[in-house]
Design brief:
The protein is mainly α and 70 residues long. The longest helix is centred in the first third of the chain and has 23 residues.
Length: 70
Amino acid sequence: MADLPPYPGTPRWVKVFGIIMTIVVLLFVVAIIFGSGHGPGRHTRSGGSGGRTTLASAIDKHTPAEGGQG
């Protein structure tokens, strides 16, 4: 039986992908530990109504333009 060439090792793309994934996971863990302020509450306005405007309140606040319908 002929001698097989030695195993070349892990391909470079696998090593690079592993390093990138490790960095992403570490950044995620650091963001969770130190509180990045990200979450559902970050995307809403602060206030009692939770940032939602009802159609009725929007109509009540509307003032027609001078001189006619608006």
